[in-house]
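To the wet lab folks,

You asked to see what we're planning to order before we commit. Fair enough. Below is the target structure as tokens, and below that is the sequence we designed to fit it. If anything looks off to you, flag it before the synthesis order goes out.
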């Protein structure tokens, strides 16, 4: 099936089998491997991307969605931003930089999904309280247990904006 979709601000044309997941398309067809395969059921957050109607800067009006549950055909009607699309050239997104500065990653497998969740939250609510941050990260599982450091990193971004 031939599709045209917008990923990280670029219009891309792909030819994929019907029912191809957005996750598979991103990783296998577009080479965007920052989005991870975790559970394949939309329960771990490793595969989160931002899905948007295409308004404004990445993250503006977007929500974090499980790319393992979205088909490529469904994604063709949205603007998709992956963790790779958050950076502005060589300058990392403030959330990405805060995760590095705050040592909010260990093995890194969940990091891209947590960053995506945080960007979506801060786009909706630039000054979230800790409860809102915890709620936003509720869909992200981390086996290394960096939740506290991730929450602090997100708070630092909110406080500096």
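Sequence we intend to order:
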């Amino acid at each position: 099936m031939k599709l045209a979709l917008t990923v990280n601000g670029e219009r891309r044309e792909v030819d994929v089998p019907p029912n191809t997941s957005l996750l598979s398309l991103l990783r296998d067809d577009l080479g965007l491997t920052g989005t991870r395969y975790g559970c394949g059921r939309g329960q771990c957050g490793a595969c989160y991307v931002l899905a948007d109607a295409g308004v404004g800067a990445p993250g503006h009006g977007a929500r974090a969605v499980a790319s393992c549950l979205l088909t490529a055909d469904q994604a063709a009607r949205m603007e998709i931003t992956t963790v790779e699309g958050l950076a502005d050239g060589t300058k990392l997104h403030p959330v990405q930089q805060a995760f590095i500065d705050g040592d909010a990653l260990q093995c890194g497998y969940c990091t891209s999904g947590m960053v995506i969740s945080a960007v979506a939250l801060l786009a909706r609510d630039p000054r979230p309280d800790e409860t809102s941050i915890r709620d936003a990260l509720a869909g992200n599982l981390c086996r290394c247990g960096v939740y506290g450091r991730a929450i602090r990193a997100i708070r630092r971004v909110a406080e500096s904006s």
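Structural context that might help your review: The chain has two domains: 2-85, 94-160. The mean pLDDT is 94.

Thanks,
Computational group
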